[in-house]
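To: structure desk
From: M.T.
Subject: fold request, one chain
Message: Could you run this one when you get a chance? Sequence is below, nothing fancy, just the single chain.
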Amino acid sequence: MTRDAPARTAEEYRARAWPGILGVAALCAALYGGTLEAPFAFDDYRNIVDNAAVHWDAVDVRSARRAVLRSPSRRPVANLTFGINHYLGGMDVAGYRAVNVAIHGINALLVFFLGRTTFRRVGRLDARQADRAALLAAFLFVAHPLQTQSVTYVIQRMNSLAALFTLGTLLLYVRGRGLPERRARVGWYALASISGLLAVGSKQNAITLPAAIWLYEAFFYRDLDLRWIRRSAAVLAPLLLLIAAGVYYVLVWGPDFGYTPRDFGMRERVLTQLRVIVGYAGLVAFPHPARLCLIHEIEPSHSLVAPITTLWSLIAIVTALVAAVAFARRQPLVSFGVLWFFLHLSVESSILPLEMVYEHRTYLPLVGVVLAVAHGVVGWSGRTRGRKHVALAGSAIVIAALAGGTLARNAVWMTPVSLWSDALAKNPNSARAHTNLGSAFAMADRLDEAEREHRLAIAIDPGFTRAQASLAQVLLKQRRPGEAIAMYEIVLRASPGDLAALNGLGAAHVSLGRSDRALEFFEAALKLAPNHPPTIENYALTLLGVKRYEEAEALLRRATRLVSENADAHVRLGQALEGQGRRDLALQQYREAVRLDPDHADAHKHLQRLGPPD
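Reply: Done. Structure tokens follow.
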């Protein structure tokens, strides 16, 4: 391998890269701009919509601490960005999605800069070819349909943000690595360390960063020197294991190792991941929209031969790894890409008790693949005019096909019904898909269809409490409280601390005029989740109904502190104050509700009844 291309040559072609870079940014905007108004989906509700900890009304230390400590997901950096999003635009989904699209565009540019730096170090391409290959890698990365789940699914900002800081850390390391003065290197390494911490704070799988830097160093600075590899690996391996154990013990693991709620054990998960990794590779190679889905139901592997594809997958993975090592000197970019792919799947395809399959896990692994492919294409075309034309035409066709797949995939995300109808069509025996489609129908007030989907889910999995709780909620909307109570009681027998069931039972008893019984369930729910705004409001609303105004006031003040822009809570607080004869204070709350929601009918009604505002 040769060292860096001369600076003058690099400068000569730098300006020519900018039109291509702008093209990458424009393609990103074109592919994802149409998704800005798509609604929140799936885990977005738990982590953003219903997560009061990221509903900021100020950017201050108190808000930041709340987002870090009280969010369901322990990924502080990502949660802070959700809080800032809320401060700037409330629950307007377009703001959240615009940030995700911007992160994806930045990541594509980081792929370009990493590619250009790497290709020039390898020395098999001249500066102009290196820039062309880097642009091709960026276009492939930004257009690939597998990326949609990390971009269009709002909560997966955690994933794309971790990738951003991972790539940034590697580039900062490379920048410092090339400087002759020790003091200057230390400065860049310090920035790389900060970026690395931000990566881990975005998503814990970024703990692979030390190994990624080591891999890059081994290939592109140490010329695969075996003595250096053996010596450094002996130091790196224990360090990685220690970091991994510490981070995941604190942030993920529990005393039961987290497998209790799963229907598979550790051995089954590890065996199944062999098939999953091969499946990921297949989706990278052929990402047709018909093969992509928000969820992928997969039967666990029970042994290497049950099913037999587990053994074939193991053979394929071992073969790929052996080949990557064997051909490392002759094909360094290909070997690096293969090892990068496996490295960045290693955390989520390990012993950890995570869901078996998610497409967003391929986001960062794909970087190694596109770098290897782009380098290979441009290297093959060389300076031969005919080959260059073939490579250019072929690349354009592939990018266009990938872009078409991304647009088709993004169209599925435009409504909850279309998203879950797609998931169900690809997983027809999935209780989870039936349940979520049922919930999507319920949100659209298509209650008969919602009931049908929930009952189909329960028929597939009679013990699926989420489907039972969702069905009970539909029955409540259909004014069938007696049936809803029976269903909620089934849920509570299986899961005594189920918050949704306790709230649902309270609501069902309210509809039957049993306020005292309803209050018991709301009180139990509040003990489980003292800062859960919907629970607080349910409890307070029932207290208002029985004229326990002072207790209702205390609860509603807590609700407005947690989510200050909740117009409904301000109206209820006004009612509680009015019930105590505190008319002026009640008027203040009704006016605040109108300020937050100018079309709030109840707030206007109360203001008109009490008199015109000042």
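Reply (cont.): DSSP finds 28 helices and no strands in the chain. Let me know if you need anything else for the meeting.
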